[in-house]
Specification:
It is built from twelve helices and 19 strands. It has 418 residues and is an alpha/beta fold. α1 packs parallel to α8 and α11 runs antiparallel to α12.
């Protein structure tokens, strides 16, 4: 016989969106069941960057153990570098620590947390509550409201709002690697040569998170993995020789038609030899919705809601989703506590979906050509020369520069001296 417990809402997924929604709802007096089906060591595959925009909106995030960053190095596809000193720092977290911090805040607020993989029952009759059950059917929980916050691959979201095609998914994969000597570990974003997307090096407290984010429909793991290794080797090589290329391919040990550079060849071999046995791999999918999908996709109803990645709430250009996970959780909790859950989708559209739709319109152009070269190369080249363009890039990294005004702001600041 099944053991059933009744709550006000059931939240499937205890990442940032699910945990924050559970915390806010529980603080408002709701009886919340939050389900976390991941193993303790199964952290979300993510760089862990949290923008200054998110930190200003949710300063409690600073209580989590993380690393603050006040300077970022950005590289063009050709390897040209610009250093950006940020007006306001952002933070980089281990997702294990970050998610655990938010989950424990939810628990302290009164949410009941269950370490169980569950599935929702979609056979209910009209007016009946939602039911989720463990895989073995031994336990069940019931509530009038069901929330999916279990990521881009959410089976609950697929049943409630439909599946997303591969063309509207991005792939993030990478490695966790040791910190360089003397903790000399810059934060780096490098736009990919010949591919849509970028690579990152995000130093955390005890390791560096390396990764690549790109579109799934053009994904070729073998080629991209080789490119990521070139990037990782270049990152460590620059700690020993600042003139080393960030894309340290084997071809980088030659100089056009000149003889091979034996010192560069030895440096690459040395760095690669140290890294090969000391990294841990990870991978994940990230939503990158098309404009038409933003117009049509439902993210909530009278008795259900999708939060964070499960709703598709990630920046289609950068893949950044933590701010939108937290913001959607906040909007949902406010709608719930006001007794107007049906307004959640409309509020999200008024708050941030227009911005994400604009990013979707810009994605191909952002990673496309501009007057014979990649737009990202032109952007870095201008930033190296013009303070106004550097300022815009700093604001883009911080999350304070939106896509709705990006083109106009870049054009204006390209001619102004600040």
């Amino acid at each position: 016989m099944t053991d059933e417990t009744v709550y006000d809402l059931l939240i499937v997924g205890a990442g940032p969106a699910g945990s924050f929604a559970a915390e806010l709802a529980a603080r408002g007096g709701a009886r919340v069941a939050l389900f976390d089906g991941r193993a303790p060591e199964e952290a979300k595959a993510c760089g862990g960057g949290v923008t200054s925009k998110a930190l200003k909106a949710y300063p409690q995030l600073l209580e989590a153990a993380g690393r603050t960053v006040s300077q970022v190095e950005m590289f063009s596809p050709a390897g040209e570098r610009v250093r950006l000193k940020l007006a306001e720092p952002f933070a980089i977290y281990s997702r294990t620590a970050f998610d655990s911090h938010l989950r424990e805040r939810a628990r302290a607020a009164g949410a009941q947390i269950f370490d169980a993989r569950v599935s929702a029952d979609f056979t209910r009759g009209a007016g009946e509550p939602w039911t989720v059950r463990t895989r073995d059917k031994a336990r069940a929980w019931r509530a009038p409201l069901l929330v999916a916050a279990d990521g881009a691959n959410s089976p609950v979201a697929r049943r409630l709002a439909g599946a997303l095609p591969n063309s509207e998914m991005e792939v993030a994969f990478g490695y966790r690697a040791p910190l360089p000597r003397n903790d000399d570990a810059p934060t780096v974003v490098a736009f990919l040569p010949g591919w849509i997307g970028y690579a990152w090096a995000f130093p955390r407290l005890d390791h560096v998170s390396f990764g690549i984010a790109t579109t799934q429909d053009a994904f070729d793991h073998k080629s991209l993995d080789a490119l990521l290794w070139d990037f990782m080797i270049g990152y460590y090589a620059q700690r020993e020789d600042d003139s080393a290329p960030i894309w340290f391919s084997r071809d980088a040990t030659t100089n056009g038609g000149e003889p091979r550079n034996s010192s560069r060849e030895k440096l690459r071999a040395s760095v690669e030899g140290k890294l090969r046995g000391g990294v841990d791999a990870y991978a994940a999918r990230i939503p990158g919705l098309a404009p038409a999908t933003w117009d049509a996709r439902r993210v909530g109803g009278d008795d259900w809601a999708l939060l964070g990645d499960a709703a598709g709430f990630a920046d289609p250009v950068t893949g950044e989703g933590i701010y939108y996970a937290l913001r959607s959780a906040e909007i949902f909790a406010r709608s719930l506590l006001e007794g107007r859950v049906e307004t959640y989708e409309r509020r999200c559209r008024a708050d941030f979906i227009r911005e994400l739709r604009r990013a979707a319109e810009m994605r191909r152009r952002f990673y496309g050509d501009f007057y014979g070269a990649p737009f990202t190369s032109r952007m870095i080249d201008l930033a190296r020369l013009l303070p106004g363009v550097r300022r815009t890039l700093r604001e883009l990294v911080a999350g304070d520069q939106g896509y709705l005004t990006l083109k106009r702001t870049l054009a204006r600041r390209a001619i102004l001296p600040f």
